[in-house]
Amino acid sequence: MIANFKKYYPRIYLMFAAAFLILGMLGSRELWTHEHRWAAIVNVMLDQQDFFHPVLNGKTYYDKPLLSYWLMALAAQFFNGLNEWSLRLPSALAGILTVWLTYLLGKKIKDHALGLLSAWMLLCTYYFVYWAKVGSADMLNVAGTLAAITYYMYHKNSYQFGRYSVFFLIVALTALCKGLVGPVVVALAVLADSLFDKNIIKHVNKKMCLGFFIGLMCYFLPFLGSWLLGSDQSGLFKVYKENFVRYFQPFDHQTPFYIYFLYLPIYMAPWSIFLLPSFWKIKVQWLCFSSLEKWLSITSVVIFVFFSASGSRRPYYILPLIPFATIFVANWILMHTRARILAQYILKLSWFFLVFIFLILLPLFYKLGGWLVLQKIF
């Protein structure tokens, strides 16, 4: 009995470490730029008890779907009202879930070792932890996207109505957090898998269509509620503007197309040093890859190209790519003894560095007055 339980120790340690780092001192930092917007909208929702019409500065604000606001409002009901903790809790829980999903996806692609190393590497990535502690929709989008893709990979050979329904419901909820970018990334991953899974055409059936319809209805329900309860602005029009218009004819955040070649190494740090050798491996060992390793490689590249092709680019837009890139790099590390030894040292250093930054230094900095003190000094 004890021996059987011990095999779960590595996963228990992983999730405990994720909860400790991501939830620890979650409410100690002042609100950051994005968070002010979410805090203001959720505060009005709670004050007016109107959860279908987001309002910012007295005007209807449908730039983001409703689900992320609802989750924060729900957290506020259980954690002493709306504060830094309740505002960030949904994102933090999504970050912890993303760590677990990364383990599951890595395990599916190859084995337990790849899943465990990938999850630890993701947890010891600075910008992943940073965004997991920010109250916004971005980490919710990452978790939802990864959840849909992981669920698909585990159940892609199942043709049951229930499987289709769960998959499309996950996709719908992801779209209700940040927009259509999540469903598009999921679709790209599924299409990439179609290159290797010759049976994917079998999924085009009545059960899949009905499951898709259920997911579609779930997505449209909040918009329908907003319309029925009265609105001076169409939420669906905002979906079109924020997703299609922004992608093809950007009205802000316009940066050069190559900018993600700079952002990706930054968001992958400290694992960026393994990126180039990992991609070189595609060229020299492609024929030796399993079908799932090939799928991971193609999916990572396709997602990167998708974000690069957009006319609107910001650093954190590529967050959904980070778990895939981490698994990709971890797979290379496990094949090289020296890289594996180096990765172990980096993991330990990164873990203590992140604990020091997020659980000691930043809380102390804000306790002593934060940026206001620095402004007075300088």
Please describe the topology of this protein.
Layout: H1 2-6, H2 9-23, H3 33-48, E1 55-56, E2 59-60, H4 67-78, H5 84-109, H6 112-123, H7 126-132, H8 138-155, H9 161-175, H10 181-193, H11 206-228, H12 235-248, H13 260-268, H14 275-285, H15 291-309, H16 322-333, H17 337-367, H18 371-377
Antiparallel strand pairs: 1-2
Helix pairs in contact: 2-5, 2-6, 3-4, 4-5, 5-6, 5-7, 5-8, 6-16, 8-9, 8-10, 9-10, 9-11, 10-15, 14-16, 15-16
Describe this protein's structure.
With 378 residues, the chain is mostly helical. The protein has one domain (2-377). 70% of the residues lie in helices and 1% in strands. The protein contains 18 helices and two strands. The protein has helices at 2-6, 9-23, 33-48, 67-78, 84-109, 112-123, 126-132, 138-155, 161-175, 181-193, 206-228, 235-248, 260-268, 275-285, 291-309, 322-333, 337-367, 371-377, and strands spanning 55-56, 59-60. A two-stranded antiparallel sheet has the order 1-2. A hairpin with a 2-residue loop joins β1 (55-56) and β2. α4 packs across α5 (84-109), α8 (138-155) packs parallel to α10 and α9 packs across α10. The longest helix is centred in the last third of the chain and has 31 residues, at 337-367. The chain starts with a helix and ends with a helix. The mean pLDDT is 90.
